[in-house]
Specification:
CATH class of the largest domain: Alpha Beta
Radius of gyration: 21 Å
Helix content: 25-40%
Structural class: alpha/beta
CATH topology of the largest domain: Rossmann fold
Largest sheet: 8 strands, mixed
Bound molecules: iron/sulfur cluster
């Protein structure tokens, strides 16, 4: 059994008058100790999918209208708020892009980690035991425990993100959802934080969902990948399917073309033309067709199906034609 199984998930945002389909029939699974990369541009539905797992969609506007989310056999969408609270933080934790949104500026980092531990203190640990755990967790993320007396503003960006990671690991979750955890950091610190996360994942036997727009981050951290575009998974497969096979959805090819490498000069980077479509005016047929360099006539009217080969699936007419 997979640790996490998402089936036919559909999510809308509504303000009472207008309805926007943010996620449209997403399916994926995640095994124990596995990392899945959820990849795509802003507005693709990555964060909405992640928030729905924790049932943290904006209460008044976000709504799951179809599908199921099973975690370790538990149907999360059927739980009441109290049951969900026992899972959030304790069994599934999430870290956000900007560490400052997760840290309280008026509490020391030690107090904040302590608070996270107390919230789910199922083993009824004593105050001394909790203080010892705070020291252990800070050491785990490469911070001198002496610094637990410091406030968030006394830390650099990279160190703040380490504190946030420490807080999310406080209760040894089985699943960690990391939403663009290194985007706000400079490149050298990014690499250090990613290395640290990978090390922690191995040490703590965790599964991870890595939300990113960067295939470079995926190549460094993920066992499998789901590429999202306008609320749909348009390519899904293993690390090998993405980084060893050559066949890709034209949008994924565009993402590959946007990764700089040491050999590349700026002129060889080929960014994807155009913008993600407005969710209130999604195009007919393939949603990527107005931006697709390989668009055919039928792409403008016919919605492509998933073309599946082994573990690799691609939603594109080009691949369906190859099969016929
Ligand atoms: Fe491009 Fe057509 Fe494939 Fe869509 S279905 S990605 S428009 S070739």
């Amino acid at each position: 059994m997979s640790l996490l199984e998402i089936k036919d998930l559909e999510i809308i945002y509504t303000n009472g008058k207008n309805v926007v389909q943010a996620v449209n029939g997403i399916n994926f699974t995640l095994d124990k100790k596995e990392t899945l990369g959820l990849v795509g541009e802003t507005g693709a539905g990555k964060t909405t999918t992640a928030l729905s797992i924790l049932r943290l969609l904006p209460e008044r506007t976000g709504k799951i209208i179809n599908g199921s989310v099973n975690f370790d056999g538990i149907p999360l969408l059927d739980l009441n708020e109290r049951e969900m609270q026992s899972i959030r933080g304790a069994r599934i934790a999430m870290i956000f892009q900007d560490p400052m949104t997760s840290l309280n500026p008026v509490l020391t980092v030690g107090e904040q980690i302590e608070e996270a531990l107390m919230l789910h203190n199922i083993d009824n640990e004593s105050k001394e035991e909790i203080t010892k755990r705070v020291d252990e967790i800070l050491t785990l993320v490469g911070i001198n425990p002496e610094r637990k007396k410091n406030y968030p503003h006394e830390f650099s960006g990279g160190m703040k993100q380490r504190v946030v990671i420490a807080m999310s690991l406080a209760c040894s979750p089985e699943l960690l959802i990391a939403d663009e955890p290194t985007t706000a950091l400079d490149v050298t610190i990014q690499a250090q934080v990613l290395d640290m996360m990978e090390e922690l994942k191995q040490k703590l036997d965790m599964s991870m969902i890595m939300i990113t727009h960067d295939l470079g981050v995926v190549a460094k951290t993920c066992d499998k990948v789901a590429v999202l575009y306008a609320g749909e998974i348009i390519e899904y497969g293993t690390f090998e399917d993405f980084f060893i096979n050559k066949a890709h959805h034209p949008y994924t090819e565009g993402l590959f073309g946007s990764i700089p490498s040491i050999e590349d000069d700026a002129e060889r980077l080929t960014p994807i033309e155009g913008l993600m479509p407005d969710p209130t005016e999604l195009p007919e047929g393939c949603k990527f067709h107005p931006r697709c360099p390989k668009c055919m006539e039928k792409c403008k009217t016919e919605k492509p199906k998933d073309f599946i080969k082994g573990t690799h699936s691609i939603k594109c007419h080009l691949f369906a034609e190859e099969e016929n």
